[in-house]
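Dear Dr. H.,

I hope your travels went smoothly. While you were away I took the liberty of generating a structure for the chain from your last submission, since the lab meeting agenda had it listed for discussion. I wanted you to have the full record in hand beforehand rather than looking at slides cold. The sequence, exactly as received, is reproduced here:
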Amino acid sequence: MKIGPKYKIARRLGSRVFSKTQTTKFSISGTERKQGKAGGRRPKALSEYGQQLIEKQKARYTYGLKERQFANYIKAIKTKKGSTPVAELYRALESRLDNVVFRMGIAPTRPFARQMITHGHVTLNGRRNNIPSAIVKVGDVVAVRKQSQTAGLFNSLAERLKQYHAPSWVIFDEATKQGTVKALPQIGEGEADINFSSILEFYSRV
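The corresponding predicted structure, in token form, is as follows:
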């Protein structure tokens, strides 16, 4: 997915949606400081639609999805009966293979996870899978492909996992380089900065 200037986008959204903006050096308030100077214009209060648009964009950039991809998730959720739309949207995004690889700690970022998958370094239930959007279900096993385990990109995996705490719905064994999805992703365990209800309200308008 082609993305514009990441620092500028993150400041506009008021959220550290990219890995390069998740540092102590980056401040999402840079734009506000400029506007607060003498003679500068104060930002206008966002309309309800504007706030919903920002939440949608935050989710898109966080999970690395194009607009059409994201809209397709919403469309699928709307056709489901007897479900909770907010929980369904969160689970759909979190259950993508690239996100599961990231959540297990195999990759430090979602873009890196997508790269690992497209280059054939990841298996799903014992078979190589190069589709980042593949949906992972409860009980599925995600692993580093045996032939790839000695590759340089996994050299720092053991050290990184010492500092990483995976969400409760996944487990990963560094020794075997294999993980399992134990349960459905539960909203509240990650991406608390995104208002998924607001996103659904945005798409109800279009």
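Two observations you may find useful: The chain is about 40% helix and 10% strand. The chain has two domains: 6-82+193-204, 96-181.

With kind regards,
E. W.
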